[in-house]
């Protein structure tokens, strides 16, 4: 297994480029299942474990893919199987994204139920509710979702989500683009990743109105075409790099980002005392002498993202006072806190809120990654911990960050990737 060995105390400075967004790549790749002709060319796809796992799932279904220099080609012409097996689905929950497109194209789909999750319950009831509204019959047996149609096609409907869900919105839109008639989706997720999926579907020939808002209107069409598409950059990776710079008292520019997509996060950096400058597609952050404690509440877009919550907690361990970080999306997403406390932080958990008592001296030790963003928060803390921090099980980090240690080292960090045996 790999670990990252971080020697803390180096100030980050310089310029770095954001990678392509993981969470928009996944639904975009799934959406290629909707079209049985031609070859898609997708640019700016990050070279990540999660993308490889998802590609394996598509290949299992019969898709032909290539990947080189962050460009993926996909042809789903030969897709015959409609079964997403447990062995592949258990590796990543986003596999559920194949449900909507397979049902829409083939009228039937069999997808293993995703398993548990490291940070609390992550149900899929809203995905199933959306498919049922569109006319699918769903049964769950022996760990599999069986979705089918009584012949014919899905039919447009009104879907009102009681809770905003990125994944369920994505699945509903992908199913609705080939449904007969009009579908309206209320309380849709407006995250840039879903906006990107909708733009991709529109480029394929789908008729979608309200893109980027919480009310989507989709008029079904009978066929879509393969297209060439440029994926957006990863706003969460960009935010993570900015937090890494801010904790070290550094000054960096992240290129490639769309500042508007990071607005809520940038506002918090400013509150914390950082100077932020933006251009059309870059953000420059300059750290203050001492960080100001800054509360955040993670909620659906355009609010502060839950995927930046762990990194913000790490940052606030160096702020001059107490800050409160509340997660209204995942109430139990706090696995990083005991590990940050092992580095010397003083963080309490009160229900879905972390109370961070700042300015404690952090000192390096071995810490364990438990999920993607938790790992990122440990790396951020390791950058300022005295001595050496070893972040174990970095495969979690590798699921969602492309060459993170290479990027951080290019900014002045001292991080080595080493192999280790878990029980030596
Ligand atoms: N929810 C339900 N029922 C459902 C689906 C969701 O109750 O059927 C609830 C969830 O329990 C949660 C809330 O709705 O409380 C929002 O979950 P959502 O469905 O939006 O999450 P997701 O689509 O499974 C995506 C990202 C996550 C990110 C969340 C929230 C991908 C592949 N994953 O997950 O990203 O945290 O949206 O923004 O896009 C990550 O990148 O580290 C990550 C976990």
Quick description:
With 424 residues, this protein is an alpha/beta fold. It has 14 helices and 24 strands.
Structure characterization notes:
It contains 14 helices and 24 strands. By secondary structure, it is an alpha/beta fold. The chain has 2 domains: 2-18 and 234-419, UDP-n-acetylglucosamine1-carboxyvinyl-transferase, Chain (Alpha-beta prism), CATH 3.65.10.10; 22-230, UDP-n-acetylglucosamine1-carboxyvinyl-transferase, Chain (Alpha-beta prism). The longest helix is centred in the first third of the chain and has 13 residues, at 49-61. The N and C termini lie close together (12 Å). It binds uridine-diphosphate-2(N-acetylglucosaminyl) butyric acid (EPU). Uridine-diphosphate-2(N-acetylglucosaminyl) butyric acid (EPU) is lined by residues 23, 26, 93-94, 122-127, 163, 165-168, 189, 193, 306-307, 329-330, 372-373, 400.
Write the layout of secondary structure elements.
Elements: E1 2-7, E2 13-17, H1 22-31, E3 40-43, H2 49-61, E4 64-68, E5 71-75, E6 83-84, H3 86-89, H4 99-106, E7 108-112, H5 125-133, E8 137-141, E9 144-148, E10 158-160, H6 166-176, E11 182-186, H7 192-204, E12 207-209, E13 216-219, E14 228-230, H8 235-247, E15 251-255, H9 263-271, E16 275-279, E17 282-286, E18 296-298, H10 309-316, E19 322-327, H11 336-342, E20 346-350, E21 353-357, E22 366-368, H12 372-382, E23 388-392, H13 395-398, H14 404-410, E24 415-419
Parallel strand pairs: 2-15, 3-14, 6-7, 10-11, 18-19, 22-23
Antiparallel strand pairs: 1-23, 1-24, 3-5, 4-5, 7-9, 8-9, 11-13, 12-13, 15-17, 16-17, 19-21, 20-21
Helix pairs in contact: 1-2, 1-7, 4-6, 5-6, 6-7, 8-10, 8-12, 10-12, 11-12
The chain binds uridine-diphosphate-2(N-acetylglucosaminyl) butyric acid.
């Amino acid at each position: 297994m790999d670990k990252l060995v971080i020697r803390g105390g180096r100030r980050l400075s310089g310029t770095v480029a954001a990678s392509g967004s993981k969470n928009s790549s996944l639904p975009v790749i799934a959406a290629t299942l909707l079209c049985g002709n031609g070859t898609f060319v997708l640019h700016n796809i990050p070279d990540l474990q999660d993308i490889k796992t998802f590609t394996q799932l598509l290949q299992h279904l019969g898709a032909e893919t290539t990947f080189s220099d962050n460009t993926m080609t996909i042809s789903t012409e030969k897709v015959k199987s409609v079964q997403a097996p447990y062995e592949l689905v258990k590796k990543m929950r986003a596999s559920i994204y194949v449900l909507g497109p397979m049902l829409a194209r083939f009228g039937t789909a069999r997808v293993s139920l995703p398993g548990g999750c490291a940070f609390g319950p992550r149900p899929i009831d809203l995905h199933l509710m959306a498919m049922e509204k569109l006319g699918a019959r769903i049964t769950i047996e022996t760990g599999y979702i069986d979705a089918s149609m009584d012949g014919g096609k899905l039919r447009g409907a009104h879907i009102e989500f009681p809770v905003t869900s990125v994944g369920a919105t994505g699945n509903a839109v992908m199913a609705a683009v080939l449904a007969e008639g009009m579908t309206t989706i209320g309380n849709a997720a407006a995250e840039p990743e879903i906006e990107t999926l909708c733009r991709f579907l529109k480029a394929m020939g789908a008729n979608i109105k309200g893109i980027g808002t919480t009310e989507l209107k989709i008029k079904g069409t009978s066929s879509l075409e393969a297209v060439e598409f440029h994926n957006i950059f990863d706003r969460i990776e960009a935010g993570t790099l900015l937090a890494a710079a801010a904790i070290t008292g550094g000054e960096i520019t992240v290129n490639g980002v769309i500042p508007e997509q990071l607005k809520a996060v940038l506002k918090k950096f400013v509150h914390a005392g950082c100077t932020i400058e933006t251009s059309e597609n870059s953000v420059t952050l300059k750290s203050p002498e001492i960080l100001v404690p800054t509360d955040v509440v993670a909620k659906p877009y355009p609010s502060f993202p839950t995927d930046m919550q762990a990194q913000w907690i790490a940052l606030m361990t160096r702020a001059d006072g107490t800050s409160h970080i509340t997660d209204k999306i995942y109430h139990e997403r706090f696995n990083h806190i005991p590990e940050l406390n092992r580095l010397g932080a003083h963080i309490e958990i009160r229900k879905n809120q972390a109370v961070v008592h700042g300015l404690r001296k952090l000192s390096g030790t071995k810490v364990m990654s438990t999920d993607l963003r938790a790992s990122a928060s440990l790396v951020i803390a390791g950058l300022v911990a005295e001595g050496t921090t070893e972040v174990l099980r970095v495969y979690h980090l590798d699921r969602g960050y492309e060459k993170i240690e290479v990027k951080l080292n290019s900014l002045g960090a001292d991080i080595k990737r080493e192999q280790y045996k878990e029980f030596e």
